[in-house]
């Protein structure tokens, strides 16, 4: 059975999604199909040739997101764009002959072949579950407000960055229509965007995804705390999918100085033959970050310090 994968993103994440798709194609052992919901109709024409011509790519199809008059909540001053909500509309865009699809966030990197595990999960899900996802938060005194805001009865809240979706159950349970209503009714309560909506809908009724299928790495820590959380894996112990969750990313200057960004940056080098994908939002902040890492000598632990300094210089000049 050919496995199908889905990405939903806009131009803000074109490079990241390219790296995610390439890492996936590099690790599967047979052809897969990739579907993309994107804001631009011409995205496919700009897709990297290493993906278009990859031996493991069966088919690729892009759908332009064109739903009108929808106000997506909680996007102002956040690192998330409206594209995070696109996956709520898969019933509108995906071909109706698909049984299952695996959704991946653009900030995921594949480091091991996931297809065998996906096939095993799909067999379990038939006629039972709409989604297989990884539990991220359990109900306790610190998280109680999240569950209450979403009017959830169960004690588990999942991360939606990797989802194996049983489309037959998804359609049968009318998930898209329910989600569209919740975009309105929960608008003032959403903290984690469409992930909150999906949790509100399923409320614990999902198959539990193995942690290796959504191995979450957060770079949102200070240097002292981060040292206790490094997830550098041995080659014999690589998860199937690494997910860079949180607002600090491996392409931010703060993220690059943390070792766990290596999985992302290596794929960038493989695809573009360059060192370090770096995106800078605020010039002053980037300069301060660089100075701090020069002062505390973190630059000495970077694999290619001169290449990074040049990349910072180039990106700062653009601002």
Give a verbal description of the structure.
The chain has helices spanning 14-27, 49-52, 90-93, 115-125, 144-149, 167-172, 175-185, 193-202, 223-226, 253-256, 262-272, 283-295, 305-318, and strands at 3-9, 32-38, 57-64, 100-104, 108-110, 131-138, 156-166, 207-208, 215-218, 241-245. The chain is an alpha/beta fold. The strands form two sheets. The protein has a seven-stranded mixed beta sheet, with helices on both faces. Strands 5-10-9 form a three-stranded mixed beta sheet. Strand 1, helix 1 (14-27) and strand 2 form a beta-alpha-beta unit. Helix 1 crosses helix 11 and helix 7 (175-185) crosses helix 8 (193-202). Mean pLDDT is 93; it is low at 223-230.
Task: Write a short abstract of this structure.
This protein is α/β, with parallel strands linked by helices. It has helices at residues 14-27, 49-52, 90-93, 115-125, 144-149, 167-172, 175-185, 193-202, 223-226, 253-256, 262-272, 283-295, 305-318; strands at 3-9, 32-38, 57-64, 100-104, 108-110, 131-138, 156-166, 207-208, 215-218, 241-245. The chain has a 7-stranded mixed beta sheet with strand order 3-2-1-4-7-6-8, sandwiched between helices. Strands 5-10-9 form a 3-stranded mixed beta sheet.
